[in-house]
């Protein structure tokens, strides 16, 4: 690789956070990525403190899941990205934000597929035969399952018939935000959806997978990562956003 073609990208690896905090940080990063002095690209890996249902931006919550949320068995948050709902539990989650004037923003579909190709390459090194799905779910939208991992779309990462990773994008005024989830193991709150452990006996931890995926994404996207955790001003802004938006019923039950 020609070193001159590498693009600087901020890297954040966070410990497990609650639902509102995780979404607030992603929105904050998406709003700041185009600011002067920023590299125009941020990759963040994170996890979840407790099982969390994240709704796609346009989704309503079915009664059976709403009951679990009301009983306190699940956290709930609405994403700004679209797609189906995700039961975040035993997984690795990432967000990738690129400013609209960044080279990676020129072709959003290619960005999506390269991120998933990086995961396929990492899994291959662990003798897991994954590939990108090519067929879209043939069912009409009104008949598709509520959970994202029970749906199929071109570019999803599959192992045999099972989907193990999916992403959703949202183009905003200043940036493209891509959310992605990699399902490591089955959740008791979504037992119908197996993870990599059940499908392929993959025993990698979220932390080790994040390190390997970071290395592969650097190759696939021609990036040079610069570790830069949230500073105090960013943390203060994220707390306000978590409390004022993502922790509110007005946002989460908007539909």
How does this model look, in words?
The protein has a single domain, classed as BirA Bifunctional Protein, domain 2 (2-Layer Sandwich). 31% of the residues lie in helices and 24% in strands. The protein contains seven helices and eleven strands. The chain has helices spanning 19-32, 63-71, 108-124, 196-200, 206-221, 232-246, 249-252; strands at residues 7-13, 41-46, 52-55, 75-78, 86-88, 91-99, 131-132, 157-159, 162-171, 175-183, 223-227. It has an eight-stranded mixed β-sheet, sandwiched between helices. A three-stranded mixed β-sheet has the order 4-3-5, with helices on one face.
Looking at this protein, list some descriptive labels.
three-stranded mixed β-sheet; alpha/beta; globular; single chain; eight-stranded mixed β-sheet; BirA Bifunctional Protein, domain 2; 31% helix; 255 residues
Distance between the ends:
47 Å
Quaternary form: single chain
What percentage of the residues does DSSP assign to strands (E)? 15-25%
Assign an overall shape: globular
Number of helices: 7
Computed over alpha carbons, the radius of gyration is 17 Å
Low-pLDDT runs = none
Domain count: 1
């Amino acid at each position: 690789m020609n070193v001159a073609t590498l693009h600087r990208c901020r890297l954040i690896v966070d410990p497990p956070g609650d639902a509102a905090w995780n979404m607030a940080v992603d929105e904050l990063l998406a709003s700041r990525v185009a600011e002067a002095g920023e590299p125009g690209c941020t990759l963040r890996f994170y996890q979840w403190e407790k099982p969390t249902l994240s709704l796609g931006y346009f989704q309503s919550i079915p009664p059976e899941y709403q009951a679990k949320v009301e009983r306190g068995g699940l956290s709930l948050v609405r994403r700004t990205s679209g797609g189906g709902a995700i039961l975040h539990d035993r997984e690795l989650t990432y967000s990738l934000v690129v400013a609209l004037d960044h080279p990676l923003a020129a072709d959003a579909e290619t960005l999506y597929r390269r991120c998933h190709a990086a995961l396929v390459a990492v899994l291959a090194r662990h003798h897991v035969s994954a590939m990108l799905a090519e067929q879209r779910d043939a069912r009409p939208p009104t008949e598709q399952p509520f959970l994202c991992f029970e749906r199929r779309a071109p570019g999803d990462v599959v192992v045999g018939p099972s989907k193990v990773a999916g992403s959703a994008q949202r183009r905003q005024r200043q940036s493209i935000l891509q959310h992605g989830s990699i399902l490591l193991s089955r959740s008791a709150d979504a037992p119908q959806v197996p993870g990599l452990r059940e499908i392929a006996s993959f025993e990698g931890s979220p932390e080790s997978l994040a390190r390997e995926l970071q290395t592969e994404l650097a190759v696939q996207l021609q990036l040079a990562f610069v570790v830069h955790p949230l500073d105090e001003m960013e943390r203060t802004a994220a707390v306000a956003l978590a409390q004022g938006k993502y922790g509110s019923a007005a946002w989460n039950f908007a539909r």
